[in-house]
Each structure stands twice: as C-alpha cells, then as structure tokens.
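I am still getting used to backbone structure tokens and would like to learn alongside you. Label the sequence line and the structure token line clearly, so we can match residues to local backbone shapes. Would you write everything just below, so we can both look at the same thing?
***
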Amino acid sequence: MTTTPLTRSPILSWGHDALRLDLRVTDDGPVQVVRCGPSAGDVPDQVPGALPLVEVNATGHGRHWSSHRLVDTAVGTRLRYRAHHVSHAGGWHVLAVELQDPDTGLVAEVVYRSPDGVPALRAEVTLRNEGAGTLHLESVTSLALGAITDVDPDTADVLWADNDWLAEFRWQRRPLRAAVPQLSGRQVRYGYGKGSFALAGQGTWSSCGHLPMGALTDRRSGRALVWQVEHNGGGWRWECSERHDTAYLALSGPTDGDHGWRHPLEPGGEFRAVPVSVAFGDRLDDAFGALTRHRRATRRPHPDHEHLPVIFNDYMNCLMGDPTTAKLLPLVDAAADAGAEYFVIDAGWYDDSAGWWDSVGEWQPSNTRFPGPRGIHEVLDRIRERGMVPGLWLEPEVVGMRSPIASALPDAAFFRRDGVRVVETGRYQLDLRHPAARAHLDAVVDRLVGEWGVGYLKLDHNIDAGSGTTGHPGEVPAAGALGHHRAHLDWLDGVLDRHPNLVLEDCASGGMRADQALLSRMQLLSTSDQQNLLLYAPIAAAAPAAVAPEQGAVWAYPQPDDTPDEVAFTLVSALLGRIHLSGQLADLSPAARALVHEAVAVYRDLRADLPGALPVWPLGLPAWDDPWVALALRTPTTTYLSAWRRPGADPTTTLHLPHLLDTPAVATPIFPADTRATTAWNPGAAELALTLPAAPSAVLLRLS
C-alpha cells in the first residue's frame, strides 16, 4: 500500500477514459464513493447520499439507523482512510484502498478493477482483524454505491430477472417509486426510510428464483447501470433504494438476515467477501454490452471461447437419459453428417440398474447399456472415428444413496446438519472442502479425460441441498455453504489446470446456476431444460443478458413430426449462441435433415463474429408471452438479428436498432434460405419492418 497525503483536495479520482470513480476522503468521516460511472466533470461539494466504501454489520455494533437494509452500519461509518495504491497492468486499472476502524481494529481492503475502455467496475473486499477481540460478522457489502446520479428515483425503473426451471431469464421492470415511495413533502423532509427493493438467493443453486443480477434505468435520460453478484451458490443479496433524494445500490454475499450467515473473525483472521461487478451505459442495451465485455475480460482464457464448436448432446427430446450402444451409433453418424464437432453422451451411461437418479457417484460405465468386449469405448471410438470429440455427463457434487461411494467416503465428506447427512431426493451432497471428496472427483475426471480421452464434461447439478452444512466445528450452515462453493471453484480451476483443453459445461437443471463465478471458469452454460420449442424462444433471446453469447448453449432439437417452419424455429433459437443439437436426427425427413445441415453450415460461417458481438434487444427484453421475440448481436460491421413469430402474433412487427441510425443497412435473410420473410429498412428511424407470413416461424437476418 502506498499512502498518499491529502493536503490539497479531499477527492481521490481514479479510472480511465470509459469510467471514473471519485472518492471523498476526509479525516473525520468514512471514505465515500461520490461518483461512479462514465461521466466526467466537477464533483459537488456536498453529496449527502454518499455511502461508506464498505458496510459491515457485526454483532454488538449494529446500525446507526435501524432497518433490514445492508447500509447505515456503525462499523462502516467508523472505517477511516489508511492508505491506497493505484496500478495498471495487463489491460486492467486497479485501485486498492485500505480502511481501518479505530474502535475494533478491523481493517478493510477494498479493491476496484476496471478493464481498459469498458465502463464497468469489479469490486472485492477483504476484511482483516487487527484488534484484540473476535468480531462476529453478520453482513459485508462487496460494493456500496450511494448518490447514484445516472438515474433519478422519480423516473427510475428497477429491473430483475425471475428464473425458474424451464422458464429462465424472465426480466421484469417496475418503477422504483412503486417499491420505494416518496416520503417527503413540502413541509417535512426525510433523508431516508427503512425499505428497499431487495432480492436474495437461497440454497445451492445460485440462480433458482432470480438471477444474481439487476439493473436501474432512467426513463427520462435512458441511462442505465446493471450489476451481477459473482457467487456460485444461493447466498447473495442485492438492494436498491433512496437516500437523500438519490438512489443507492448495495451488493453482498450471504447475510445473517437472509441466510442465517455469521462468521467469527478472530484476531489475525481474514474474510473475503464475494466479488461483484457493475456496468454503465447511455441505454440499457449499452450497459448490458459493457457487462458482456467485462465478463469476457474476467473469465479464464480457453480456446473454446474462440472456436465455438458445434455440440450434439443425446438428451433433450432424444434419448432422455436412456443411452445404449444400439441407440447411440446411428445418432453418432447422423450428428457427424450434420456437422457436429463434439458428441456428448448425457445421463444414464453409468447405470446398470432400474434408474440412474439415485445411483450416481461411482461413474463407471454400464455393462448392460454397452455390452460387448469394448463396452462404452465402442461408442467413444465411433465418435472419434467420425471426426468428433467425445463428451460425457457428470453430476460431480452429488452421490446417490444407492451408490457404493455413499459408504466408501466418510460422513465428513458430505453436507451435514446437526451431525446428520443432508438427503435430497435420494442423493447426498458432497462438501468439496473435504480432501476425500475432492480426491474422489479428481480421480474420476483424470480417468475419464486422461485415460478415456473424453474432451467435454457436462457438469450438472439437480438438487438444492438447502441452507448449507455444519461440517466444521462451530459454523452455521450458510458459512459451510460459502466454504463449499469456494472449494467448488478451486476444484474447477484445478481440473482445468491439469486438462487445459477440456471443455466444461455449467448445467444445473437447465439454468439454475447462471452466475459469473462459474462462467468465469466453465466454457458453456446450459440455458434451459425447456422441451417446448415455442417457449424456448424468449429464453434464448434473453440469455445474452446473463451470459456472453458464445457461452450460452441453446437446444436445437427438431422432431420427425415437426413442420419445416417448426424445424427452422428451433434451429434459429441456437444460431446466435452455442448450438446444442439434439433430437432424433436419424429419423428426420430428408427436407428436415437438409434444414439442420443448412443451419450448421450458417453457424460455422458466422461463429467467428460471436466472441466480439454485443447483444441488442430490438423489441426490448422479451416477456414470457410476447407474440414476437427478437435478439440482435452487433459487431462493428455486421448485425445479426433473430426474430421469432409465435402463434397469435400479427404478421408484421417493427424492430428498433438505434445503433444503425442513419445507416443505409441492407437486411439479408441467411437462415432459412427459402424463408418467406420480407423486410423494409427505415434508416432515419433506425427501424426494420419485418413480415413473417406463418406462425410459428423464425428467421435469422444479417444487416450490413
């Protein structure tokens, strides 16, 4: 840390051309963020809505303004500036600020990072106890932004995404004033109330119920900020509200009030809060674009992010967990003929008994499903012979109650509460902090990848193990859960360190773990288990708000009885993400197979543009029942636009593409080739009129 004397100005300014962060530093008050965003200019002398950099609630200290909110904590208000350090390396600007509470000896190191040219900020907080007594933590904010000037509480909307199994990424919008009413009138003024608009995640699924994301946007100016909590379990919370006539935002991991989380920070001890990020834009789409660029900058490098191979998986609307040699071999040939580059054998490949659900854990191949001297290797070899990379499904964190691993591992290797193993739908949950649990999984992966030559693992997770585990002495379940989820990330890093070309898919009953903590390590996200092609359209269109397009895997599962328009509809859903081909390809009609081959060829032609493309929603973020759904991805020279007309929709819709204002763009249908779609472009209004005569039907356009 470098201490910088503050003799001339109490404002510490930091950032780059795309982002500025201004901190007010005084001797008699907490360090505060007084401005954060892309704008520059003078900082006002008085910023009454500003918040301390960190809010810490601890037993015996509490808040100086009682409420259920994360802000207004006594410890946060006492934290004082001690030092700061600025650096720039590898395309990242870094500001580290050290604070200290003179009463308890608590030291907080707040680290802000921002990539060159991107109006986005990542925040991390580390607490150290330099005092003489134990401090019992109840909540710690990873980011606290007060006095947000980009949105006015009177004209602001708050956005969040409901997220359910089969119904992921359903963005909702509500005026902030509907949740946080104006409390002041002409005669009496109040600085702040006690309420907020808040969401919290629960359990071992990080995005079950809601995405760990949110947004604020101003209806008058259009300006917006979007945020994400980068935690792979359900222990997270975010809230926004009003203080002194300006909006504030607070983001955190688990808390006592929401999750029963507590952490005894003993003298000399250290605690890391979960990372969070926020991005800014002149429009909501611009803010999501900045967050997309930020996600790409923060994830682990991997060749899959550039090559985007086409994947066939035998599960969805296909074998549905019942693979055998006889069923797989025709699918392998059909997938190879269609242009697939990876072939994944999904659930059930290990099951020799009546049902794979509660027998998981040992991960040895079934002898009855794969008879003969070569067993499953007959299929794996055929996959390689047809020029594809073989993949397998795993559910690594669970062990079925009928699995021999359930008795081979000690009780301490599993989630426990009150000394009893946690059971959920016939499965146990591993605690990856335990060396036996991790050694077991490492041996499985090294066997499948190192000995069998598997190049792709679909890592699923289909149970919610609840509040957590009390596996360590004195810990509350939520603290055990936080420890396990961090050990899970460490395990993934270890797998990829040993097998750097291995492709990992993040799946949890579809999209129940759509979080940046996992997606910064794993290469793909399974966006949904939705089997209805009409209902998948809004999921596919909204997915780039939660995941970079090149990581969002979308099922394309044509069926033998589908019409040509329905075959094209399901294929269009996957063309601006990652194709997960499935369905009974070998049983399709020649015309339907030709459509599949055409779609894969189109995808292989455009996929080089996807790793740099940014999402745009020409009809707004899709609602679940919208009759028309649209998604565009824009690059500096080309815009790709997918549009879906669902039953009940008018034949024509108007799509808004403000980034192409006054541009003489040409809209060319690229899939399906024989589409009956017609278009008319209005450059002065940046609007594209699109007509699709049939419903359901879909089209992929290129505007250049």
In short: The two ends are 50 Å apart (CA to CA). The longest strand covers residues 135-148.
